[in-house]
Amino acid sequence: MQNFLRQMGKKATAMTLLLSFAVTGVATCGVGVEKAFAREDVVTRAGMFTDSTGHWAAKDIEAAAKNGWIQGFPDGTFQPEQTVTQEQFLSLIERVLPSFTGHEPDAFIRDTYLKQAEGRWSEKTYTHLAAAGILPTGKPTDPMNRLEATRILLAALGHQSEGEKYRGTKAKFFSDLSTDDEAQVMIAYPAYKMGIMAGYPDGTFRPAEKISRAQAVVLVNRLERQIHELYPGTVTDVEKQGMTKAVSAFVGIVMDQEQIRRYDDLVSYVKKNKLPVTESFLREHFSFMQYEVYDYIRFPRFNELTYYAKIGLGKYRMTVQYYSGELGGSVDKTFYLSSMDGKTFRLIGKDE
């Protein structure tokens, strides 16, 4: 799963614009697409549109409008059945995600994923999300299809790794998805089980089917709900800062400052310096060092998309969704920590 985005790439923020036109895909009233995206003068009263009343997605459309994620066209319509492009879908996703600083993409990312967005209204969105490993595999103006949208949603939730559970499975969830197509299975199956993307009554998934504006709004509302469900508890800014500092400082010391490359040396270093790190944590994140020759997926810089959760008395979870370089591609990595005061943290294993 970690290599899927990289393989697809080889084959194939802050937005300052109102999302009213970040989900708009055609010229309106004689205004071209690029100009339409730049307009900021349309306000829809209470999220109601002249063509959304009675629509199957009316409640989702109204909720998204009230949250400020979408607005309508100058004529008061939303045009719910209009197809959404990749850049429009990414802009919508960006609106819902927690804020994160990000960093400048490397040359490989720019050449492989961002080149076609250069000079477009969506360039800042593409650049911002690239740090989080949320990257499309087509052109910005290509229609967004269900499989691509599903992959992006999994990344936005920091749950791409869920696909590993279905590697090699023979279970058939959908009549139009072959278990021989592992890449599709590892995207569709976890999203279906998590309730992110549903199948159709006839038992199909329809991976190539285009996403409409209404469907995009429904998906982004699901994304918001899933974020709250997957990352529970109230984590203060002080706790977030302490968690991030504890993990990033340890990774920095091990990989950059001390340049430790053998697991036994790492264990010895931790014990000698009496660092607040358990062996379970070391095994979960540094077991690759036990091999004579190894490749490792680059650790995050910790300014990428990060989710924090309080999962028990004094126990926390931090998930970072990021681009780990050409070797690893788009990756999510989860760290567990404990703390009694919410200021000093111990790095622990998942089951500790």
TrEMBL record:
InterPro entries: Cell_Envelope_Struct_Comp (IPR051465), SLH_dom (IPR001119). Residues 1-27 form the signal peptide. It comes from the Bacteria. The keyword Signal applies. Keywords: Signal. Residues 44-107, 170-234 form the SLH domain. This is S-layer homology domain-containing protein. It comes from Brevibacillus centrosporus.
